[in-house]
Design goal:
- It is a single chain.
- This protein is mostly helical.
- The chain contains 2 helices and no strands.
- Helix 1 crosses helix 2.
- The longest helix has about 30 residues.
- About 15% of the residues are buried.
């Protein structure tokens, strides 16, 4: 998936829908402009932490376990 990824939850949703990879899009460029390499590292750490929280809240133990069942509304 390329574009539209703004949070760790977006990554989990994309993976649940079958994406094999997610590109961060322009977030890295904003981070670079805001503070260089250190800010990019911070942005990636935030994205990783958001993904971890989303996985905990959905009961997903591993990224490879993300499937369409995570998005069911039943």
């Amino acid at each position: 998936m390329d574009s539209g990824v703004r949070s760790g939850l977006d990554v989990l949703k994309a993976l649940a829908l079958g994406a094999k990879a997610c590109f961060v899009g322009r977030a890295w460029a904003y981070a670079l402009g805001a503070g260089g390499e250190a800010q990019i590292a911070r942005m990636l750490a935030t994205l990783r932490a958001e993904l971890a929280v989303a996985m905990i809240l959905t009961g997903c133990n591993a990224v490879r376990d993300a499937g369409p069942g995570l998005l069911d509304r039943d």
